[in-house]
Design brief:
Structural class: alpha+beta
Shape: globular
Low-confidence stretches: 1-24
Order of helices and strands: HEEEEEE
Largest sheet: 4 strands, antiparallel
Helix content: 10-25%
Radius of gyration: 22 Å
Number of strands: 6
Strand content: 25-35%
Amino acid sequence: MNKISTQVGRYFIALSLSFTVLTSNAQTPGLKFRNPVLIDGTAGQQNAEYKFSNVYTAPNGTVVNAIVKIKKLENGATLVNIDETSSGYPDAWQPVVGGPTTKGTNSYIEWEIRFKKNNDDDYEFSQFVMSAVDVD
């Protein structure tokens, strides 16, 4: 009986170690959105594109940039600031959106975010975590 429980214990230890190894290979990347540069279009207008350089460096050394595009300005929405850095979390992308103060009017900006390698090839994350804060 003692021999079987020892083998079962070894099996569970080996199994939990394998899960630990698999889990550690699938960590969520931490992104750093800093110093955006307008690369196309007119600042704050539909189709304007901003580049955030070096938002992530992959374990293999690949540098990843983010291209943020204003797809649509709806119901009088305006871009006040593409990235507010004086408050909040400095590594986060924190756009400030304004709009009409008319009661019952819903205004918003529709965004597109593309991740690109330095050679302009697309970069895909295997997983991604996002939080929306102060969306009202």
